[in-house]
Specification:
The protein is an alpha/beta fold and 612 residues long. The strands form four sheets. The chain has a 17-stranded mixed sheet, with no helix packed on it. A three-stranded parallel sheet has the order 4-6-8, with no helix packed on it. Strand 1 and strand 2 form a beta hairpin. The longest helix is centred in the first third of the chain and has 39 residues.
């Protein structure tokens, strides 16, 4: 036994000696290197044992001249250097990553980085770059990642021809207005291109020449684009983001499928689409389709026909009509977002056969009811029906939500009577606090007044055992009924105003401000001014010599005399003298010293009611 213990001790002792012999030199070398790095650390910089150096507010020349060769990552924040030249990098270094950000650099001259042959990542974000020389990146044969974002670059003509191994390029938030046809002609390995926040508006020619078979991700948000034409030549795209532009028309389904056979992520949110063609995305296989914040007003039964998509976002449009089969022919939908649309009412079987649906957002859709079979074939895990006009939820609907983990229902005008009992029971059994989204309190009753602001879970059996008859009869469409009532009152008021205006105008258009219908000859009411005839004051009769009456009153008398003549039973009236004789007799009898009356009387055909 003792011999075995002795052998073990000897074995461990030998092992310790060998370990020290092998690792001691390595340890000494590392310590010496660290001491050298710490001693040689440039001013205004901090050096770490991981061969990383970070400097602030220092001249690039001073930093590079005192930088140890072994350092592989250098970060410089707010450098005082205004432009970069080869003088700042005149010593060879082993740098793999160089980051110069938040500074005041305005230009980069030719061959500035030619001695940094091992550099793979160059970050010049958030400077004031305006000009980059044609050969600024000459010598960076191993460069993979280049970040020039958040500068003021206005042109990139042939800037990248010398960095043929680039895989990631950030040019977002600059002042680019055009992309020359040969700007990316030498980029045979570029996979990711970020162009967000420039001012392209429209791109002419072939701006992505050289990228049509390699580029996988293209981001062009907020670039003022009004068309998708310029990007349809990049067949290799897997992810295309054209959100926050002014695009109003989409290529046809055939053009989309031909242009993007490998596309999986398509972001077209915050554009100006108003309608989608039927079958717009047919036979496309997408992971995400984002059409939020457009001006779409309807979803027909065939717009998404035969589309395979997992995440479909139609939120914040103006959708008011949804076809009953709008989503039934979409394959594999897992997440559907219809929030912030004035839908009002959903077709009862809108989500039928959507067996893969797990997350549904119907927040702020002006919904006032949900049918019991609304989610019949769905196995929802997350459901958001917040900020609608739902007064209660039926027991049948809740029974179909057995798999829910997240149920967002706040912001509804819950009416706490017998119809709220199913929701009360469901909440008491399954409600859980979710501090991440601020749901740590039970929904509150909004009516009746006696239960206002009472948490639904605190309601007693007595509170939910009875229902008010008027509440049951009125149903959930109280808002609609109120709107119709107000609309009816407004229409009635408008009708009364129109009638009053017509009467006022007709009254003002009549002589003397009065209007009378023609009556029989014996009637006391005539079609001329009665106030004038029946005035108690003495006045001259209408057709005496020296009359000074108005022509309007004379014409009225002529018409009255005409109607009296027509009802005369005197046979002589029928077999009287010829027309010419009657006119002469009339002129002699009634003209007197007033020739205007005679002329006006026989100059019009008999029977014409010109005096009315």
């Amino acid at each position: 036994m003792k011999n075995k213990l002795t052998v073990k001790r000897i074995y461990y002792s030998v092992l310790q000696v060998l370990t020290m012999v092998i690792f001691l030199p390595i340890y000494v070398i590392l310590c010496g290197t660290l001491i050298h790095i710490c001693d040689a650390c440039p001013l205004s910089c901090s050096c770490s044992i991981s061969m990383r150096v970070k400097c602030q507010q220092a001249e690039m020349k001073d930093i590079m001249n005192n930088l140890p060769y072994q350092v592989y990552k250098l970060e410089v924040e707010r450098t005082t250097t205004n432009y970069l030249t080869a003088v700042h990098f005149n010593v060879s270094h082993n740098l793999n990553t160089l980051e110069i950000y938040d500074g005041y650099i305005t230009a980069i001259e030719n061959k500035t980085f030619s001695l940094l042959r091992n550099l793979q990542t160059l970050n010049l974000t958030r400077n004031r770059l305006r000009t980059i020389s044609k050969e600024a990146f000459l010598g960076l044969d191993q460069l993979i990642n280049l970040d020039l974002s958040h500068n003021n670059i206005q042109s990139i003509d042939e800037v990248f021809y010398s960095v043929g191994k680039l895989q990631t390029l950030y040019l977002n938030s600059n002042s680019l207005t055009a992309i020359p046809s040969k700007a990316f002609s030498s980029q045979r390995e570029l996979r990711y291109l970020q162009l967000n926040g420039n001012e392209f508006q429209s791109l002419i020619g072939s701006p992505f020449q050289g990228l049509t078979s390699t580029l996988q991700t293209l981001n062009m948000r907020n670039c003022g684009l009004n068309s998708m034409t310029s990007v349809t030549s990049i067949r290799s795209l897997n992810r295309l983001d054209l959100g926050e532009n002014s695009i109003y028309e989409m290529p046809s389904n055939a053009q989309l499928r031909s242009a993007f056979p490998y596309l999986r992520y398509l972001f077209l949110d915050r554009n100006k689409f108003t309608r989608l063609a039927d079958g717009q995305f047919s036979d496309m296989n997408l992971d995400t389709l984002d059409l939020a914040y457009n001006q779409l007003d309807q979803v027909t039964d065939t717009q998404f026909n035969r589309l395979s998509v997992q995440n479909l976002n139609l939120s914040s449009n103006v959708i008011i009509n949804i076809g009953e089969q709008a989503f039934q022919l979409i394959k594999s939908v897992v997440n559907l977002n219809l929030a912030h649309n004035p839908i009002g009412a959903l077709p009862p079987e809108l989500f039928r056969n959507m067996f893969s649906l797990r997350e549904l957002n119907l927040s702020a859709c002006a919904l006032n009811s949900l049918s019991e079979n609304q989610f019949k074939d769905s196995f929802l895990i997350t459901l958001d029906i917040s900020y609608n006009s739902l007064p209660f939820i039926s027991q049948g609907l809740l029974d179909r939500l057995s798999m829910l983990n997240t149920f967002n229902i706040q912001g509804n005008p819950w009416h706490c009577d017998c119809r709220i009992a199913p929701l009360k029971q469901w909440l008491q059994q399954r409600w859980q606090c979710n501090p991440m989204i601020g749901e740590c309190s039970s929904p509150l009753c909004m009516s009746p007044q006696s239960l206002t602001q009472r948490p639904i879970t605190d309601l007693t059996e007595a509170d939910v055992n009875t229902c008010q008859p008027e509440a049951l009869s009125s149903g959930p469409d109280v808002g609609m009924a109120s709107g119709l009532s107000v609309g009816g009152v407004v229409l009635l008021i408008i009708l009364i105003i129109v009638i009053c205006i017509l009467c006022w105008r007709r009254k003002n258009n009549k002589p003397g401000g009065q209007f009378h219908l023609c009556r029989s000859p014996g009637s006391d009411v005539t079609s001329h001014n009665e106030d004038f005839e029946k005035s108690p004051k003495a006045h001259v009769k209408p057709f005496s010599d020296g009359d000074q009456v108005s022509i309007q009153s004379d014409k009225s008398f002529v018409v009255r005399h005409y109607f009296q003549t027509m009802v005369s039973t005197d046979p002589n009236a029928v077999t009287g003298p010829p027309e010419r004789m009657r006119r002469d007799t009339f002129r002699t009898t009634y003209s007197g010293s007033n020739p205007s009356l005679a002329s006006s009387a026989y100059s019009y055909p008999i029977g014409r009611e010109t005096a009315i």
